[in-house]
Design a protein that fits this description.
Blueprint (H helix, E strand, L loop, with lengths): L5 E5 L5 E2 L15 E5 L4 H9 L26 H7 L8 E6 L5 H11 L5 E5 L4 H11 L6 E4 L4 H7 L5 E5 L16 H18 L3 E6 L18 E6 L6 E9 L7 E7 L2 E4 L17 E8 L2 E13 L7 E4 L3 H15 L6 E7 L11 H13 L14 E3 L2 E2 L5 E2 L4 H11 L3 E3 L7 H10 L4
Parallel strand pairs: 4-8, 4-9, 5-6, 5-7, 7-8, 15-16, 17-20
Antiparallel strand pairs: 1-2, 1-3, 9-10, 10-11, 11-12, 13-14, 14-16, 18-19
The structure holds thymidine-5'-diphosphate and magnesium ion.
Length: about 450
């Protein structure tokens, strides 16, 4: 095979060099040169495939339309939801996530249940034996799944005939011999994705691509591929916990505000269709615990904010936050110190959102603030009617002046809380300020 010639192109300014350099001599950016195939036969190949010299203008009204309402079900409802109702012909989906989060597990489950056989699974990451072992653990028989253990992208493409669905696990293991860079380099990852994507579009075959997110940054992350694919799904969760969430970062064929919720079980990923019941252990029953309702996509979901407040002699008391932005917690602590008068400058404060979920919803502010106050006073939020049935929940954004602000979707959130049995709301309607909320529901409560 004739090797295509390549050059190194600066991703910042477009400067091209025949060899790799650490710093771009044109714009001064470091590590910005990426190996790229020079396509000398660009015009010739175009005229061959289209039968015309150049792409001619086409009237918009004459362009052949496709029916995106026709969807292929993946067989996993929570996934169909994030895809916008299922897979579309020729759709290229990137599934990104940290190693060990469950990407291969999910893809094997899709391969088993998708309404589109046969499925070809390109195994670059693990051996066929390892995948077979996982399949039997998941209860996947695999009659409709064929494995190809191959990492050369051009060989992969030449080997796959007509098929229902292709799975690439993972893109960081594939290479093309046209580039000299090693597997996982930005150049390789992009070029392999480009070749697979163009093949998928030409044949109308849906394609799922796994991309690892790594902290070291030695392997090109899924971010460099986002613009090349139709849909980007972000797989997240705390590996020590069972909860897994799939978010849509980009979707050319559907909404981007949906999430799919799963739990990692003994036999793979199980769908969680009723997430509110998942995170409420001791919620609201003990000091330092306050229930709130966050929006995950378009779904309201009950979560528990937990706080621990401990006296300290340190000049810089500890502030620790998990499951929520630490800067948000700092701000709430500042409001509690300045506007409510809690002497938190002489206390360590720890805040946690229970269940391993990460939230990014200002509607949880009031719950975090009241949880800290509840921990500080060592009193539960209330008054509780009976100690075993907590009924209070707090929803509201906290402003710098200590005011409680209304958040979007308040009605839907409140309805969900009531459905699960939390009947007493603390929102901007019940308390105009954080100070008022704490006075009414913590310090003067009889529990
Ligand atoms: P895996 O799908 O291999 O992750 P990735 O492809 O994203 O690297 O799954 C990783 C973890 O999931 C692994 O630590 C074991 C766990 N697991 C289960 O808990 N139950 C199961 O049924 C399977 C297959 C895996
Ligand atoms: Mg894997």
């Amino acid at each position: 095979m004739v090797k295509a010639s390549t050059q190194y192109v600066c991703q910042q300014c477009g400067y091209a060099s025949p060899k790799w350099m650490g710093q771009c001599p044109n714009c001064g950016q470091w590590n910005s040169l990426v190996e790229t195939v020079i396509n000398q036969s660009k015009f010739k190949s175009k005229s061959k495939t289209r039968g015309v010299g150049f792409a001619e203008p086409v009237r918009l009204s004459d362009v052949k339309k496709e029916d995106y309402t026709k969807r292929i079900a993946t067989g996993i409802g929570e996934l169909d939801r994030v895809l916008g109702g299922g897979i579309v012909t020729g759709m290229v989906v990137l599934i990104a996530g940290e190693p060990g989060i469950g990407k291969s597990t999910l893809l094997l489950q899709i391969a088993d249940r998708v309404d589109r056989a046969p499925v070809i699974y390109i195994a670059g990451e693990e051996s066929a034996t390892q995948i077979a072992n996982r399949a039997s653990r998941l209860g996947v028989t695999g009659e409709n799944i064929s494995l190809i253990e191959e990492t050369d992208v051009d060989d992969v493409i030449s080997q796959i005939g007509p098929t229902g669905l292709i799975i690439i696990d993972s893109i960081q293991t594939l290479t093309t011999q046209d580039l000299t860079g090693s597997a996982g380099s930005v150049g390789q990852v992009r070029e392999c994705t480009a070749r697979l994507t163009s093949w998928a579009k030409k044949t109308g075959t849906p394609l799922f691509i796994v991309g690892h997110v790594t902290k070291e940054g030695t392997i090109a992350g899924p971010r460099v591929l986002e613009h090349m694919v139709d849909t980007v799904l972000w797989f997240e969760g705390d590996r020590r916990e069972s909860l897994r969430i799939i978010r849509t970062i980009k979707n050319r064929f559907g909404p981007t505000d949906e999430v799919g919720i799963f739990s990692m079980e003994e036999k793979g990923l199980a769908e969680v269709t009723n997430p509110s019941n998942l995170f409420l252990g001791q919620a609201g029953k003990v000091p330092g615990s306050v229930v709130t309702v966050v929006m995950e996509g378009t779904r309201p979901m009950l979560v528990e904010a937990q706080a621990l407040v401990v006296p300290t002699k340190l000049a810089f008391p500890k502030r620790s936050a998990s499951g929520v932005d630490p800067r948000r917690v700092e701000l709430i602590i500042a409001v509690l110190s300045r506007r409510v008068g809690l002497p938190l400058w002489e206390h360590d404060v720890f805040v946690n959102i229970a269940g391993g979920i990460r939230i990014n919803d200002p509607g949880a502010d009031l719950a975090i603030a009241t949880a800290i106050a509840s921990a500080f006073y060592d009193k539960v939020i209330g008054p509780l009617t009976t100690p075993t049935t907590p009924t209070f929940f707090a929803i509201g954004e906290v402003g710098l002046l200590g005011e409680v602000r209304e958040v979007v979707g308040l009605e839907r959130r409140t309805k969900e809380a009531k459905r699960v049995g939390f009947t007493n709301s603390i929102t901007n309607k019940e308390a105009k300020t954080v100070s008022e909320a704490i006075r009414k529901y913590i310090t003067s409560s009889n529990s």
